[in-house]
Design goal:
elongated, 6-stranded mixed beta sheet, 6 strands, 146 residues, single chain, 5 helices, alpha/beta, 38% helix
């Protein structure tokens, strides 16, 4: 389901703001089993802030969430949103993985490729990462599958 309340800053009416848009989305969380944030999101400041608020509330309600595409930008720039959240899955491609690793101080070139995904998952406090590539690595920092 794509949420119809989400707005870019330029498309907000005079009666809309991040607070009331976030409240509309958060009000729906109890009816959801999982949230996917990212595909088609873009980098608009209002959209990202709304998503950040939804993530905070999803964590409080123990609702699992997946960050993909532009949703990964939130994990890169605001890692506290996902740090230590066992209900969070990050799904970066090669380029996105490199950005996340750099933001967390993990050198993808100096590390054994089989260990990098695990190291990044640990840096994020045990989130699950699905590193997409020629070989996919899935790790929560303790267990890694190839």
């Amino acid at each position: 389901m794509v949420h119809p309340y989400m707005r870019q800053k330029k498309n907000m009416s005079s009666s809309e703001n991040i607070d009331n848009i976030s409240a509309e989305v958060v009000a729906m969380l109890s009816r959801l089993h999982v949230i996917v944030i990212g595909p088609g999101l873009g980098r608009d400041e209002a959209m990202l802030e709304t998503c950040a608020r939804v993530i905070v509330e999803a964590k409080k309600q123990n609702i699992p969430f997946v960050l993909d595409a532009d949703g990964l930008y939130l994990a890169q720039t605001r890692p506290e949103l996902v740090h230590g959240c066992k209900e969070c899955i990050l799904t970066p491609n090669v380029v996105e993985f490199g950005r996340l690793a750099k933001a967390q101080g993990v050198d993808v070139q100096a590390e054994d490729p089989a260990q990098v995904c695990s190291k990044l998952a640990k840096a994020f406090g045990g989130v699950t990462i699905i590193q997409k590539g020629n070989k996919d690595y899935i790790s929560n920092g303790e267990h890694t599958l190839v």
